[in-house]
Structures are given as C-alpha cells and as structure tokens.
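Saturday, quiet lab. Running sequence design on the structure tokens for the scaffold JK sent over.
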C-alpha cells in the first residue's frame, strides 16, 4: 500500500515529467508578459541556465543553515527541544542540497559535519536534557567552524553568528 509521502513523490514526478515533456517540444514560450522570465527564455537551454543561476550555489544553503543555526540557539534558550530537532534536521537537508549544486563541498560536509556529528547532536536534543543539548549544540558549532577552515574560508568564523552563539556554561 502506498503511503502519502510516496503518493506525493509519485504525483510530483508525474507533474515534472509532463512539464519537461512539454518543454521538449517547443523552442519558445514567449508570452509577452515580463513576469514570465522563465517562459520567455529563448530555448530550453536558456531556461535551465536561468534556473541554475536562480538556485545559486552553496552560499544559499549556508544562508539557510545560518538562519536555522540561530533558531536552534534560541530554541535551546527556551528549552523548546522539538523546535531545535526540527531545525537540526532541516540543516542536514540544506547542506545536502548545497553539495548537490556544489559537489566539491560534499567531502568536507560529510566527513567533518554530517557523518561524525549530525547524529550525536540530534541525540543530544532528543534527550531533552538541557545540559546535553547545549553540549550537542557546541559540538555542532565546532564542526561548522572546522568545516569552514577545511574549505579555506576560516574568516567565515569571525562573525556575530559564532560570537553570539556560545553555549552557556
């Protein structure tokens, strides 16, 4: 029996397939409406270039990670473990989407952050023990900063995001 998530994925795949099939049979969809920036591109290749540029690189994912990281910090201040868990899982998704667009970032993301640290931090939040949760947060923070160093952008660690999110003692 198909669950809702499988059904949603099937429907999304069908819709995308139909849209792509439709694009495959036309060179131009000029609508005359300036809001149709994607449809008005001259060819399918031009549309894909526009989409690629719009989706950005790894920095877009890091922007999301930073937002969620600050949200986790605030969640732990409020002892809202469910919200911390939610944002922590979303950070993993954001990083994976980031290295989908920038595969050169994958090794450090996985070997410094996702594989050794992600599960430990998640477990610390799921423990619902505030001391353990803050220890986990500190572990995640250190992994973020280590990954920045490994990516040759250590200057990224010198900003309020990290200065203002030191776990309480």
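Result came back. Writing it out in full:
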């Amino acid at each position: 029996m198909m669950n809702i998530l499988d059904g949603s994925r099937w429907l999304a795949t069908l819709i995308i397939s139909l849209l792509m099939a439709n694009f495959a049979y036309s060179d131009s969809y000029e609508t005359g409406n300036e809001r149709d920036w994607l449809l008005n591109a001259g060819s399918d290749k031009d549309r894909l270039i526009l989409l690629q540029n719009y989706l950005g690189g790894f920095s877009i994912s890091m922007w999301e990670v930073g937002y969620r990281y600050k949200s986790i910090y605030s969640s732990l201040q409020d002892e809202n473990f469910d919200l911390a868990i939610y944002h922590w899982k979303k950070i993993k998704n954001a990083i994976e989407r980031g290295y989908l667009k920038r595969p050169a970032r994958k090794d450090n993301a996985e070997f410094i952050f996702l594989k050794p640290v992600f599960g430990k931090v998640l477990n610390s939040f799921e423990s619902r023990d505030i001391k353990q949760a803050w220890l986990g947060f500190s572990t995640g923070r250190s992994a973020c900063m280590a990954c920045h160093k490994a990516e040759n952008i250590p200057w990224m660690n010198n900003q309020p995001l990290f200065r203002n999110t030191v776990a309480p003692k």
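Notes for JK: The chain is about 70% helix and 0% strand. The chain has a mean pLDDT of 88. Ask whether to fix the surface positions before the next round.
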